[in-house]
């Protein structure tokens, strides 16, 4: 996985308005099944991590926890531990990068 390219893609998605950030907003989008891909920081709190992972698994939404809070925050320009990608095209490209 090329982490720099993935973070650049997150920043691009943020500027394009295709991300939802913050734990509660991400959970809401997972429940409504609008989220295409969910990121949670590997150093997020235990409860936050479990809650988002469980919701993602239940609603069958792709989930990734291989980035730190600092990396995510720097990429999107805001301090966040959880983000959801709302656009199918961005999500597909990011999944390819993660598996890649």
Task: Walk me through this protein's architecture.
The protein is of the alpha+beta class. The protein is built from five helices and four strands. The protein has helices at residues 3-15, 23-31, 46-58, 69-76, 88-99; strands at 19-21, 37-40, 62-64, 82-85. α1 runs antiparallel to α5 and α2 (23-31) packs parallel to α3. It is globular and about 30 Å long. It starts with a helix and ends with a helix. The model has no long low-confidence stretch (mean pLDDT 95).
What is the topological layout?
Blueprint: H1 3-15, E1 19-21, H2 23-31, E2 37-40, H3 46-58, E3 62-64, H4 69-76, E4 82-85, H5 88-99
Parallel strand pairs: 2-3
Antiparallel strand pairs: 1-4, 2-4
List the strand order in the largest sheet: 1-4-2-3
Fraction of residues in β-strands: 5-15%
SS elements, strand count? 4
Low-confidence stretches: none
Number of helical segments with 4 or more residues: 5
What fraction, in percent, of the residue positions are helical?
A: 55-70%
The arrangement of helices and strands along the chain is: HEHEHEHEH
Kindly, what is the distance between the CA atoms of the first and last residues, rounded to a whole number of angstroms? 5 Å
Oligomeric state of the chains present here = single chain
What summary fits the major beta sheet?
4 strands, mixed
- CA-based shape: globular
* Average of the residue pLDDT scores: 95
**What Rg, in angstroms, do the CA atoms define?**
12 Å
Secondary-structure content class:
alpha+beta
């Amino acid at each position: 996985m090329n982490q720099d390219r993935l973070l650049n893609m997150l920043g691009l998605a943020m500027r394009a308005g295709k991300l939802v950030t913050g734990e509660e907003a991400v959970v809401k989008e997972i429940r409504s099944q609008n989220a295409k891909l969910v990121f949670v920081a590997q150093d997020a709190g235990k409860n936050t991590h479990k809650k988002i992972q469980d919701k993602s698994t239940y609603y069958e939404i792709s989930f990734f926890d291989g980035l730190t809070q600092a990396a995510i925050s720097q990429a999107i320009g805001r301090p966040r531990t959880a983000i959801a990608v709302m656009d199918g095209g961005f999500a597909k490209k990011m999944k390819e990068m993660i598996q890649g």
